[in-house]
């Protein structure tokens, strides 16, 4: 299933893998043919990730699978010596081997090629994040891109949109607003990826406009009336530390927010803003307004929380 070395390098480029990781990943892949257990895991995982019949089985609208539902992510298996480079790159080999199937699945849905390419290139973002956080090659949170390969998450402009269902917390918010949707109904979970430039209002407007057009066209069997978001970016305390015209504040203002959760998540904004939680706070940089806001709030004895909100589509 794994492409030969030359084709593997091209597949890794298509997946957005940073150049500095491609040579090492290709070199280590030459061990796989001699590792029967790793090959077995590779083939089993690819078949689970994107079954051969995905998008081509029993059909509903315009050749789309009528049995294709919202399944969620899957956990990728770990090889022995999980900290070793061969094992750290194993998820990358799974995604490279599954790439032709994922593309076929997208084509069966009529997904435009640029959307397919940007969506699946999120694998490379996970490789870049692994190197930023750990200083080595690998795939950070390897279960995350499985959503993309299963047709459950798409990159549309600056934002990512995940096909999901409304949970209890958001369902209560929607019921209080008088909307005729509740727990278990379809919703789009909105995600803000790294390495995509500033979160400007114009970029967000464009992504939401793309989503409003994309999902009725490519997933017409599901009706999405709301988008939800759970993120450190939605902690309303940022309004005390950032100017009113900051991108984060203007992003928050789009959502109807629920009450904050009981448990703080101080490490989450630190991890996203600084790329690490291993350094003492007093050794982290204070070069931007956001960096200073995160650090000053913690030094004042405050805590950060994951905000939850929704907006109508």
Mean pLDDT figure:
90
Give the spatial strand order of the biggest sheet: 1-2-3-4-6-5
Order of helices and strands: HHHHHHHHEEHEHEHEHHE
Question: How much β-strand is present in the residues?
Answer: 5-15%
Which spans of ≥5 residues are poorly predicted at pLDDT below 50?
54-67
Q: Label the structural class.
A: alpha+beta
Q: Specify the biggest β-sheet.
A: 6 strands, mixed
Could you tell me how far the N terminus lies from the C terminus, measured between alpha carbons in angstroms?
41 Å
Dominant shape: globular
Estimated helix fraction: 40-55%
Q: Round the Cα radius of gyration to an integer and report it.
A: 21 Å
User: What's the number of helices?
Assistant: 13
- Secondary structure: number of strands: 6
Descriptive account of the structure:
- The protein has 313 residues and is of the alpha+beta class.
- Helix content is 43%, strand content 10%.
- The radius of gyration is 21 Å and the shape is globular.
Quick recap:
The protein has 313 residues and is an alpha+beta fold.
Helix-strand layout with pairing:
Layout: H1 5-14, H2 19-29, H3 36-49, H4 85-88, H5 90-109, H6 113-120, H7 122-134, H8 146-149, E1 153-156, E2 159-165, H9 168-176, E3 186-191, H10 201-218, E4 226-231, H11 247-252, E5 256-257, H12 267-274, H13 289-299, E6 307-312
Parallel strand pairs: 3-4
Antiparallel strand pairs: 1-2, 2-3, 4-6, 5-6
Brief descriptors of the model:
alpha+beta; six-stranded mixed beta sheet; 6 strands; globular
């Amino acid at each position: 299933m794994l492409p030969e070395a030359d084709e593997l390098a091209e597949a890794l480029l298509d997946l957005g893998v940073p150049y500095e990781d491609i040579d090492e990943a290709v070199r280590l892949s030459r061990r796989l043919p001699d590792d029967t257990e790793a090959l077995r895991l590779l083939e089993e995982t690819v078949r689970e990730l994107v079954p051969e019949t995905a998008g081509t089985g029993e059909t509903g609208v315009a050749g789309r699978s009528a049995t294709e539902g919202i399944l969620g992510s899957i956990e990728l298996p770990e090889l022995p010596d999980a900290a070793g480079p061969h094992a750290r790159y194993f998820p990358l080999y799974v995604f490279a081997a599954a790439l032709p199937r994922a593309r076929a699945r997208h084509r069966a849905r009529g997904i435009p090629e640029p959307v397919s390419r940007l969506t699946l290139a999120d694998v490379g973002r996970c490789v870049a994040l692994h190197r930023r956080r750990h200083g080595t090659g690998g795939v950070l949170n390897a279960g995350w891109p499985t959503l993309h390969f299963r047709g459950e998450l798409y990159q549309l402009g600056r934002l990512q949109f995940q096909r999901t269902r409304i949970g209890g917390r958001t369902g209560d918010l929607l019921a209080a607003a008088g909307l005729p949707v509740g727990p278990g109904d379809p919703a789009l979970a909105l995600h803000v990826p790294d390495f995509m430039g500033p979160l400007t209002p114009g970029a967000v407007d464009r992504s939401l406009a793309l989503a409003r057009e994309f999902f009725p066209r490519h997933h017409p069997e599901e009706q999405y009336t709301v988008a939800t978001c759970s993120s450190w970016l939605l902690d309303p305390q940022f309004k005390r530390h950032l100017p009113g015209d900051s991108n984060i504040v203007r992003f928050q203002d789009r959502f109807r927010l629920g009450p904050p959760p009981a448990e703080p998540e101080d490490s989450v904004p630190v991890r996203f803003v600084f790329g690490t939680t291993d350094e003492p706070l007093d050794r982290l940089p204070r070069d931007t307004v956001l960096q200073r806001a995160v650090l000053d709030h913690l030094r004042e004895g405050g805590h950060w929380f994951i905000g939850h909100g929704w907006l109508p589509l």
